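Let us practice reading a record.
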Amino acid sequence: MSVAAPLVLRPGDGVRLRELTRSSTAPAGHLQRARMVLMAAEGLPNAEVARRVGTTRQTVIAWRARYAAGGLGALADLPRPGRPPVIDEAVVVSVTLNPPPADLGITHWSARTLADQLARAGTPVSFAEIARIWRGWGLQPHRVETFKFSTDPQLEAQIRDVVGLYLDPPDKAVVVCVDEKSQIQALDRTAPLLPIRFDQAERRTHDYKRHGTTALFAALEVATGRITTDACYPRHRNNEFLAFLKQVAKAHPRVKLHVVCDNYATHHHPNAKAWLARHPRITLHFTPTSASWMNLVEVFFGIITRQAIRRSTFTSVPDLIGAIRTFIDAYNERCQPFAWTKTADQILTKANRQKNSDTRH
């Protein structure tokens, strides 16, 4: 039996074909064809090439001929025969954007329920095709998110005030964000934790013992990201807030101090107002109602929850407080300031949007 002559590759095709064979994302058929052409270029017989790639000799001969005639472009898939599918994507999208009929008793579409509904309406579409259309149009009926409009009459003034402190802080002054994280529970599991293992996550019992709660008051210095003062109290009334405010003032003596906080009632208590009147170097700046996310210390509260509280076990409230303070000490060694990027106008554009708006929300 005669042996086919080695296939002659076009300049640069060898490198591209070898890169294709190492790809982890290319279709399997393309990888197989690239291997066939490379082996044929090495002078291997067609039967041996077929044996190595797991195909027939006739297939190897066909792809050799395809490459010889058209180069790398000829190794792509040819258009398949048959009538292309006739699916009106507009119908699928239109039905998806409207709630399901009341008689179905469901709150949102799934690919299968929509496929059944369209089939009953005389438009048969497979659920896999519906899922493909959803991906193409960025539709996710299974997901739901929440939002909240702020009804604060001083919304614009307070947003501009707080954002101005972040983006253009006053000269020779210190800006801190203060808040309290209340009801932090000292939870202890009913059995010891099982540590992480290969192919196995850390495990813990679903039930737990409660050993009390504490409230963490924290002040984040905007310029440095440091937690300049921390205090834990059993409760979070106006007395605790005022005591904490005095600690913050003591930590930043003889400078103008601008304090960002939310609209919690204790922050407006007459005791706090009277103390502030006696200390005019300290000014409170309030975030709008339902906009406590504008307080940067909330970012730190999220960090300490994820990294130190949620997965830990505590046998007592003092144990919990000790863990909080240990984390804060270590955090201050590596902290960096949080970069506020949104301008007041950008925030107000979304805050003032109309409920019937078609813009992205």
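A brief commentary: The first helix runs from residue 13 to 21.
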